[in-house]
Structures are given as C-alpha cells and as structure tokens.
Amino acid sequence: MAPRRAFVEHRKNERVPLAVPVFVRGKDSEGKEFLEFATALNVSAGGALLATRRFLPRFTTIALEVPSAPLPRIKVLPRSVRRLRARLLRVTVVDGYQLWGLKFSSPLISKLSGRKVHSLR
C-alpha cells in the first residue's frame, strides 16, 4: 500500500464560511447554455466552494451572479461585486451534490491594498 501524502493547503486567501445564494451560467459538456441556482458554501478573495446538482467537467469556465435587491448608485454606499467569472478546478460528489472548487478570474480584493479589484457590473 502506497503511503498517503500529507494535505497541503494551496489557498492564498482565507475562506469565509458564509452560505450565499448564486445563479450559475455556463455551457454544459454538450455546449448547451444553462442557468442554475446554487449555493456558495464559503468564499475567499480568490475563489469559492459551490454546492450544486449539475455536473460539469474540471476547467469549465462559468459566470456567477449574486442576487441582491436593487440599490441606488450613490457615493455613500460602497461598490460591491455581484457578477464574477470563475474556473472550476475541483469537483467532489457528496450526497448527490457536486461541490465545485472555483477560482475567480480576478481576485475580489488586492491582497496588498485591501481594495476591490474585480467587478463585471
């Protein structure tokens, strides 16, 4: 029996264990466009863990949209990210759900400045 390798954490950003509803858009393995409701189980500046029922192969690019109530565009309110592009890096199946490990195309915040650097409004 081969020795087990120790798990090495590769994340650059701390994960926040916050369940966030999201809409997922993309193309399936047959090239058909889809829109699905899913839940982000945790989020970091660099990616997220998403729970869904849909199977997609690794390295698929998807778009995420966080539903929110419409807010007026006034300078007092901070800008927030509602639309993101991500790549599916890992798929784990648990109790009929697909758990997708996602990496955002651009980090949500710059680690050096602490400022948001990504938005696809």
Question: What features would you describe in this structure?
Answer:
This protein has strands spanning 20-27, 33-43, 47-52, 61-65, 83-94, 97-104. It has a domain at 20-66 and 79-104: predicted glycosyltransferase like domains (Thrombin, subunit H, Beta Barrel), CATH 2.40.10.220. By secondary structure, the chain is mostly beta strands. A six-stranded antiparallel beta barrel has the order 1-2-3-6-5-4. Helix content is 0%, strand content 41%.
Would you spell out the secondary-structure blueprint of this structure?
Elements: E1 20-27, E2 33-43, E3 47-52, E4 61-65, E5 83-94, E6 97-104
Antiparallel strand pairs: 1-2, 1-4, 2-3, 3-6, 4-5, 5-6
What is the terminal separation in angstroms? 52 Å
How many E strands? 6
* CATH homologous superfamily label of one domain: predicted glycosyltransferase like domains
- Mean of all residue-level pLDDT scores: 83
Task: Return the string of H and E elements.
Answer: EEEEEE
- In the CATH hierarchy, the architecture of one domain is Beta Barrel
Cα-based radius of gyration, to the nearest Å: 16 Å
CATH fold-level assignment of one domain: Thrombin, subunit H
Main structural class: mainly beta
Give the count of helical stretches: 0
Q: Name the shape in a single word.
A: globular
Strand order of the largest sheet: 1-2-3-6-5-4
